[in-house]
Amino acid sequence: MDNQQKFEFITEKVKERPINKKKLMRRTLITVSMAVIFGLIACITFSALEPVISNWLHPQEEIEKIEIPLVTEEILPEDMIVHEETSLEPTQEVIDSLINEIELTTKDYQKLYQNIHVLVLNLQSATVTVTGMTQEVDLFQDSYETKGQSNGYIFAQNNTEIMIMAEEDSISESENIEITFVDGSKAEAQIRGTDADTGIAVLSVKKDLMAESTLEVISYLNLGSSSLSTLIASPVIAIGNPLGKSSVVYGMITSMDTIISMPDSNYRLLTTDIYGSANATGILVDFTGKVLGIINQKYNSEATPNLISALGITEIKTALQRMSNGMEKSYLGINGADIPAKIANSRGIPLGVYVTGIDLDSPAMQAGIQSGDIIVEMNKNKVTCFADYVKIMSEWQPGDSKEVILMRQKQDEYKTAMVEVVVGNRE
């Protein structure tokens, strides 16, 4: 018996086990589902931890808030006089004799204008060229770039950026904004904020985009005060485009009595004897280099369309600070005016902000504030003038709910009323 016959009884045929397709499909789906869930968890975890890890590896410097002194303390001429019990005023004869002793030569005038020229040159380091660039498409569907230029002025900085004020119209449609500094270097800028009332925009440029040499040569405007009564007849310089092109002209302030009333803001208009363009732009500075106003010809009278006028810098500082810090413009919709202390005392009127008008459908109207009301307190802050109102409003944010105390005349007396206002946002 050969070997093949010997083991024939244990020969068997091995059959493959049938595949359970449902079970295989279930396991495949479970595996894929677990992979997807693991991937989602990994993505969420990375997204949550990435800023923490990145900040740990590359800590970012906290951006400082821009603070602009809203009240400029200046020594008035009368404050410099030492008042004694027996002070003697000079007679007109003494004054006339002193004036007659002063003789000005042509060299004196020449030196005066040379000093003014030096002042203007110093201010140029705070002046920049703002170029707004926009992509356009022609009739043949070919794209091309348009550029618009205007002057800008460096006025503030924090630890990471410098702030530049410019005309809103010149960059409102721009897709990219380029700043050219006094040394010819360029850097990209971002719009930090705009203000429709004043037509001013604030641009920011990151310092790490600027060369060290540029940071060393630029300067910052000194924002002065436009609310001093002593400004009348003060000499001023108009810088920028007062003649419709780059130019510098001199003159003096002739009037500052006009108040431009806007919702939640009042602006003092400074007028001068400087003859310029009806489309003039730029800044108005005094002979110490302090900015007194932003040139704005929009409010000129029809009789004097070409005399240079400017919105006072004191009232603009609040808007500059708000825009520099990227804050939205709070809105109640109130037009108001100060109540002079003499009138308040003589007529028994409470001291505060007299409401001269209310915007339709504004937060103030919805809260029940009316024309003729006198605002005396805002969220537990005393209000004695419109400047107080503007300062308090600048610290509020759209959506805030605030308490306003006002005095409302009923018959022959004023009675206290309290309203709750929800702060809006002025586009």
How would you describe this structure to a colleague?
The chain has ten helices and 21 strands. Among the domains are: 223-324, Beta Barrel (Thrombin, subunit H), CATH 2.40.10.10; 330-425, PDZ domain (Pdz3 Domain, Roll). With 427 residues, the chain is an alpha+beta fold. Helix 7 (313-324) runs parallel beside helix 10 (386-394). The radius of gyration is 35 Å and the shape is globular. It has a six-stranded antiparallel β-barrel. It has a six-stranded antiparallel barrel with strand order 8-9-10-13-12-11. Strands 15, 16, 17, 18, 19 and 20 form a six-stranded antiparallel beta sheet that branches. Mean pLDDT is 83; it is low at 72-88.
Distance between the termini: 109 Å
Mean pLDDT: 83
Which CATH architecture of the domain at 223-324 is right?
Answer: Beta Barrel
Number of strands: 21
Strand content: 35-45%
Q: Largest sheet, described in full?
A: 6 strands, antiparallel, barrel
| Uncertain segments | 72-88
Number of helices: 10
Could you name the CATH topology of the domain at 223-324?
Thrombin, subunit H
Biggest sheet, strands in spatial order? 1-2-3-6-5-4
Q: Which CATH class of the domain at 223-324 is shown?
A: Mainly Beta
CATH superfamily of the domain at 223-324: Trypsin-like serine proteases
- What's the helical proportion of residues? 25-40%
Helix/strand/pairing class, anyone?
A: alpha+beta
Overall form: globular
Rg from alpha-carbon coordinates: 35 Å
